[in-house]
Amino acid sequence: MLSTKVTCNSHGQDSSYFLGWEEYEKNPFDEVKNPNGIIQMGLAENQLSFDLLESWLQKNPDAAAFNKPNTNQSIFKELALFQDYHGLPAFKNLRFLQALVRFMSEIRGNTVTFDPNNLVLTAGATSANETLMFCLANPGDAFLIPTPYYPGFDRDLKWRTGAEIVPIQCSSLNGFRITKSALDEAYKQAEKQNLKVKGVLVTNPSNPLGTSLSLHELDLLVNFISTKNIHLISDEIYSGTVFSSPSFISIMDVLKNRNLMNTDVCKRVHIVYSLSKDLGLPGFRIGAIYSNDDRVVSAATKMSSFGLISSQTQYLLSEILSDKTFTKTYLSENRRRLKQRHEMLVKGLQKTGIRCLQGNAGLFCWVDMRHLLSSDTFEGELELWEKIVYEVGLNISPGSSCHCSEPGWFRVCFANMSEETLILAMQRVKSFVDSMAKKNNQSRHQQLLNRNSRRTKSLPKWVFSLSFHHREVSGADER
């Protein structure tokens, strides 16, 4: 009695990415109440700088109380009454959108500016990405996405829109970088499947790789969409998390430096942004689409009525983002803390013999555990993942859930927990790896004994006679 959309299996909820979350929720780690529980390392959430936001709220109580600054005059009623999807005129033209685009420019070193009239607010990046799919693709059309990619894209981009994803296969041989040959091959694969390619979607910085796209990769993408006359969506929700070199390069920087602003190519480039990662506010559901195509902006604005940001949230965030001193301090300190925590995870894993892809951004590491697999297969990867979840007590995301083409890679998050919890997680990993090494040594030793036993049994009787005679002679000499 339900619709085919509801009953179809294209949501992706049965992915190991989501299954790991379910196991965590059954047995969540708590330092006091459940110290042997599962530690959540599958959640890309930034809790490292939450104290900075709390400190700002304490110093600016009028914002959270919905009072006009430095007055006791409440604007709660004004915020609580009905607003259409354009938001309050004051927010639309003067406050929140202007504060948001200024913050986006600040993250990019003020090398580019954004027009608030080209911005459409959405209830998080999930809504923004799906809205763009509805605007740009018909059911059955395809977008090309580099692997590995965020597991939620199978749900966000495909489930309700009917769009398809064709992977751009990237390899560990070059650090999973995008190449022209990989782009061309993905396009050919789509054609073989009789899919019309409408565009390419990239995350920059990458989730799950924790790396920002190079200028060479961005140039390749612009050239590719120019040649194919298709769209490019650049999901830049981690742009403010770049904590070490190379620095972040936005697709807007490339368009500006190549004098492509106000061209047809520029109109086919769209940016997705959110405050969930950079500011650590996923619960506020603040996302945005930035497009230079007026038709996309108009259509996305109409569709945004299905996922609005509350007026109260807009007001509070406009106050925070308008404080230039705070945003400058926050971005700098947040990057410093991310870098420190990233190094802590990388060094902790290195002590166990596990290496990570060299990263410079994000809230996670792309971890190489290929040497721990029982077999170089995705079955071997899932077997290892299950041991890590159930025996070690860590929820991490297997590479297969991210559509990685090579088994043995895992995404491990580090910014959603305390330093003490991360230390405990590394201790658990070390104990697990040590126990595996011990079992492997014992197994090899037993195999050697069995091999020698079989070899001994197969020797002819005269060898034993000769050996017995040799021992008698040797014993006589010793006596």
Q: How do the strands and helices of this protein lay out in sequence?
A:
Blueprint: H1 4-7, H2 16-26, E1 39-40, H3 50-59, H4 61-64, H5 76-80, H6 89-93, H7 96-107, E2 119-122, H8 124-136, E3 142-146, H9 153-159, E4 164-168, H10 180-192, E5 197-203, H11 215-228, E6 231-235, H12 251-257, H13 264-267, E7 269-274, E8 287-291, H14 294-303, H15 311-321, H16 324-350, E9 355-356, E10 364-368, H17 378-392, E11 394-395, E12 397-398, E13 409-413, H18 419-457, H19 461-478
Helix pairs in contact: 7-15, 8-9, 8-14, 16-18
Keywords: Aminotransferase, Ethylene biosynthesis, Fruit ripening, Lyase, Pyridoxal phosphate, S-adenosyl-L-methionine, Transferase
Cofactor: pyridoxal 5'-phosphate
Pathway: Alkene biosynthesis; ethylene biosynthesis via S-adenosyl-L-methionine; ethylene from S-adenosyl-L-methionine: step 1/2
Question: What would you note in describing this structure?
Answer:
The chain is of the alpha/beta class and 479 residues long. Among the domains are: 62-327, Aspartate Aminotransferase, domain 2; 435-478. It contains 19 helices and 13 strands. It has helices spanning 4-7, 16-26, 50-59, 61-64, 76-80, 89-93, 96-107, 124-136, 153-159, 180-192, 215-228, 251-257, 264-267, 294-303, 311-321, 324-350, 378-392, 419-457, 461-478; strands spanning 39-40, 119-122, 142-146, 164-168, 197-203, 231-235, 269-274, 287-291, 355-356, 364-368, 394-395, 397-398, 409-413. Strands 2-8-7-6-5-3-4 form a seven-stranded mixed sheet, with helices on both faces. Strands 9-10-13-12 form a four-stranded antiparallel sheet. A two-stranded parallel ribbon has the order 1-11. The longest helix has 39 residues, at 419-457. It is globular. The model is unreliable at 88-93 and 466-479 (pLDDT under 50). It catalyses: S-adenosyl-L-methionine = 1-aminocyclopropane-1-carboxylate + S-methyl-5'-thioadenosine + H(+). Residues 39-428 form the Aminotransferase class I/classII large domain. Its EC number is 4.4.1.14. Its cofactor is pyridoxal 5'-phosphate. It is an enzyme of class 4 (lyase).
